[in-house]
């Protein structure tokens, strides 16, 4: 947690940042401008998360109601099908024996993102973390509320490409968010909006 806060890192107090407590009116005005900008980034984060979460939730409700216990639907021949699968493992069906552990990890990711959101000043990072948050919430909802039991529920997967694991929109959001974070890190853009070069 401490390492994550160091990476995300905008200090909460002027003293922590090494800035003198007495600031000119101009500096105070700049600081006041930063706060609304930060709030907008937080709004983007939670807006993206809500969109990803609702899209995943609605898609799973449709799949359970219309596709479960029915033959797969071919979308692009046998290259892409919609097929309802209950997955007790992690993303793309890995680790089915560790359902409770994956549930705890998803919950921890949500807590960390929510905690660090107040120090977020980068729009691309807000989008990336929003995708991660929405995807984690989507699959966590399945693990809590679906059978066989609380924190052991099987996730509903339905997107089935040929020669690949079956997955859902929450998995897609998590992977896209992860890829975006890697690209941002390579570009040297930090979550607090600063750019560094190694």
Low-confidence stretches: 1-33
Strand order in the sheet with the most strands: 1-2-3
Approximately how much helix is present in the residues?
55-70%
Overall mean pLDDT: 79
Taking the alpha carbons of the first and last residues, their distance comes to 23 Å
Q: Say what oligomer this is.
A: single chain
Q: Which term fits the overall shape?
A: globular
Radius of gyration: 20 Å
Overall number of structural domains: 1
Order of helices and strands: HHEEHHEH
Strand share of the residues? 5-15%
Number of strands: 3
The major β-sheet equals:
3 strands, antiparallel
Organism: Streptomyces viridochromogenes Tue57
GO biological process, one term: proteolysis
GO molecular function: aspartic-type endopeptidase activity
Pathway: Protein modification; lipoprotein biosynthesis (signal peptide cleavage)
Looking at this protein, list some descriptive labels:
198 residues; mainly alpha; 3-stranded antiparallel beta sheet; globular
What this model shows, in words?
- It is an enzyme of class 3 (hydrolase).
- Belongs to the peptidase A8 family.
- Keywords: Aspartyl protease, Cell membrane, Hydrolase, Lipoprotein, Membrane, Protease, Transmembrane, Transmembrane helix.
- This protein has 198 residues and is mainly alpha-helical.
- The chain has one domain.
- It has 5 helices and 3 strands; from the N terminus they run H-H-E-E-H-H-E-H.
- It has helices at residues 2-8, 25-66, 99-116, 123-145, 169-187, and strands spanning 73-76, 80-87, 155-161.
- The chain has a 3-stranded antiparallel sheet.
- A hairpin with a 3-residue loop joins strand 1 (73-76) and strand 2 (80-87).
- Helix 3 (99-116) packs antiparallel against helix 4 (123-145) and helix 4 (123-145) runs antiparallel to helix 5 (169-187).
- The longest helix is centred in the first third of the chain and has 42 residues, at 25-66.
- The radius of gyration is 20 Å and the shape is globular.
């Amino acid at each position: 947690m401490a390492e994550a806060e160091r990476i995300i890192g905008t200090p909460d107090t002027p003293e922590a940042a090494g800035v003198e407590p007495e600031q000119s009116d101009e500096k105070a005005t700049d600081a006041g401008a930063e706060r609304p900008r930060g709030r907008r980034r937080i709004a983007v984060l939670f807006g993206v998360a809500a969109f990803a979460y609702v899209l995943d939730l609605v898609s799973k409700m449709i799949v359970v109601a219309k596709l479960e216990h029915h033959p797969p639907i071919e979308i692009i021949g046998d290259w892409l099908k919609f097929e309802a699968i209950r997955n007790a493992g992690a993303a793309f069906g890995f680790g089915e024996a560790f359902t409770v552990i994956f549930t705890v990890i998803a919950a921890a990711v949500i807590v960390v993102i929510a905690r660090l959101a107040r120090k977020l000043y980068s729009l691309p990072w807000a989008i990336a973390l929003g995708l991660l948050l929405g995807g984690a919430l989507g699959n966590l909802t399945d693990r809590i509320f679906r059978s066989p039991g609380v924190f052991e529920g099987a996730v509903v997967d339905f997107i089935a490409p040929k020669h690949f694991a079956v997955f859902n929109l929450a998995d897609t959001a998590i992977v896209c968010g992860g890829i975006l974070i890697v690209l941002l890190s390579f570009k040297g853009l930090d979550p607090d909006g600063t750019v560094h070069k190694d």
